[in-house]
Amino acid sequence: LVLARWSESAEFLLNVPLFDRHADDPRIGEVIADFTTLLLLECRMQAGVSFAEAVKSFQRNLHGAIDHAAFPALEVLREARRQGQPRSAPVVFASNLGEEGFVPAAFRDAFGDLHDMLSQTPQVW
């Protein structure tokens, strides 16, 4: 709702970074890499809908979009352009919420507390 008001648009695309590290490889614990993938989430704000209903709708859309996350955001944008419907997704919504936070206890034990962190996504606000 805040983004819809800020952008003065009831419809927009939101970039949602996902941590896409697959645990099906037994040696995945030995890999150090950026496993981030971007998911595009179409957001449509409807007039007269309560905040709670808007959040529930957003959550349903997010879960549905995650089911199709294997098709990367950049490919979605390229395909839209090929079909004559260019889109932009200049806003990223990132959350580091989780059961133990963004930094696992084993990391903190080995390296200490994390004091600064930066996440950058090109061509976004």
Order of helices and strands: HEEHHEH
What is the domain tally? 1
As laid out across the biggest beta sheet, the strand order is: 2-1-3
Bulk shape: globular
Strand % is: 15-25%
Number of helices: 4
The CATH class is Alpha Beta
Structural class: alpha+beta
CATH topology: Chloramphenicol Acetyltransferase
Number of strands: 3
- What helical percentage do the residues reach? 25-40%
Low-confidence sequence ranges: none
CATH superfamily: Nonribosomal peptide synthetase, condensation domain
Tags for this model:
3 strands, three-stranded mixed sheet, 125 residues, alpha+beta, Chloramphenicol Acetyltransferase
Report on this structure:
This is Non-ribosomal peptide synthetase. It is a single chain. The chain is built from 4 helices and 3 strands. The chain is α+β, with helices and mostly antiparallel strands and 125 residues long. The chain has a single domain, classed as Chloramphenicol Acetyltransferase, CATH 3.30.559. The longest helix has 16 residues. It is globular, with a radius of gyration of 17 Å. The model has no long low-confidence stretch (mean pLDDT 82).
